[in-house]
Specification:
The protein is an alpha+beta fold. The protein is globular. Helix content is 46%, strand content 13%.
């Protein structure tokens, strides 16, 4: 028997789920995998997060915090920190993505996602988040945006000179200084339709189930809003995005629209550059070439963000060093 499977079985036995059936639900862009566990009429989800590549402690910490605030993060039934296992509440199969595919009410679900963010930002602040939650600071933003230079550009045949790489850092640092010190709320970081669940039997914002929040940081409130409306895997029409921004602003009358849109542009540009690098790395290093299918969309999102005046120098850098005809899907052979 595979050693990891044997460890799963022992963990489930110790958790009171002996002789349960285990079915793979999904694997994601990390080393984690998720399995549905069935025992008679009981259901749960097994998160397999093998150390040292993965660490379940952030998921446990943030999940408990979100639950305490009344949000629908999966309840934790059992945990094994040393081996990297969690037994979680099964929130079902109705991700927003799947509901949309069955002609679900997209407008209502997007509005629910916005309302959930509004409530999170009302309840979460630097005084309430777990004390050891790291900030989404300049250093982290710069580390992320470097992924496009370190992974994507070499893959498409662009080798930056020392001066070009130095100017890359300079223009991004200048842009990020406008948002890096905004430690306003908990930022879930991957707040998009693949990680949101439709829980029709619950009420109010509890109907929006939350997944994949283990990388949460403390940062600008614009980030998760941007992540929702500028989705790497799904086209969101401009009219819908504007309507959702307006809904957010109407509920948060202490926010200046111009500042919010600037933050969305800057944070969006950084995220999209990061994602282009990550998707390239997933294909080249990990053999997960399916992520390359999204790169053209993400380039479009990045180009749109770069049109904001606050990013003029970043746009000039890309126009000089990565002309539009070179913004291509990398050709990577995977075995």
């Amino acid at each position: 028997m595979d050693k990891r499977l044997e460890q799963q079985i022992i963990f489930l036995e110790n958790a009171g789920w002996a002789s349960s059936k285990i079915e793979l639900l999904a694997a994601d862009a990390s080393f984690r995998s998720y399995h549905r566990v069935k025992l008679n009429d009981r259901l749960a989800v097994l998160m397999d997060a093998p150390p040292p590549e993965e660490d379940i402690r952030p998921f446990v910490k943030i999940g408990k915090y979100l639950s305490q605030l009344g949000f629908s993060a999966p309840r934790i039934y059992a945990e094994d920190e040393r081996r990297g296992f969690l037994l979680l509440e099964d929130l079902g199969d109705n991700t927003y993505t799947r509901v949309f595919a069955t002609v679900g009410d997209e407008e209502m679900l997007y509005e629910l996602a916005i309302d959930t963010l509004i409530q999170l930002h009302e309840l979460s602040s630097t005084t309430t988040v777990p004390a050891d939650t790291a900030p989404y600071d300049l250093s982290r933003l710069m580390t992320e945006v470097a992924l496009i230079a370190d992974w994507y550009l070499p893959t498409i045949g662009i080798s930056l000179s020392g001066d070009a790489r130095s100017s890359f850092d300079t223009v991004w640092q200048s842009a990020f200084t406008k948002v890096a010190d905004k430690q306003e709320t908990l930022v879930l970081r991957d707040y998009h339709v693949d990680n949101l669940m439709w829980l029709s039997h619950r009420t109010d914002t509890a109907r929006c189930g939350l997944l994949d929040f283990q990388d949460a940081l403390v940062g600008a409130r614009a980030y998760d809003l941007m992540s929702l409306i500028e989705d790497a895997r799904r086209d969101v029409p401009t009219a819908r995005a504007d309507k959702l921004i307006k809904r957010y602003l109407d509920a948060c009358d202490d926010i200046d629209e111009q500042t919010l849109r600037q933050d969305i542009a800057i944070l969006g540009a950084g995220r999209h550059a990061k994602v282009i690098g990550i998707f390239t790395r997933l294909a080249e290093r990990d053999g997960k070439s399916q992520y390359l299918d999204h790169i053209q969309r993400v380039w479009g999102l990045l180009e749109n963000s770069l049109q904001h005046p606050a990013l003029a120098d970043v746009q000039d850098w890309f126009d000089t060093h990565v002309p539009k005809d070179q913004r291509i899907i990398p050709s990577i052979k995977t075995e």
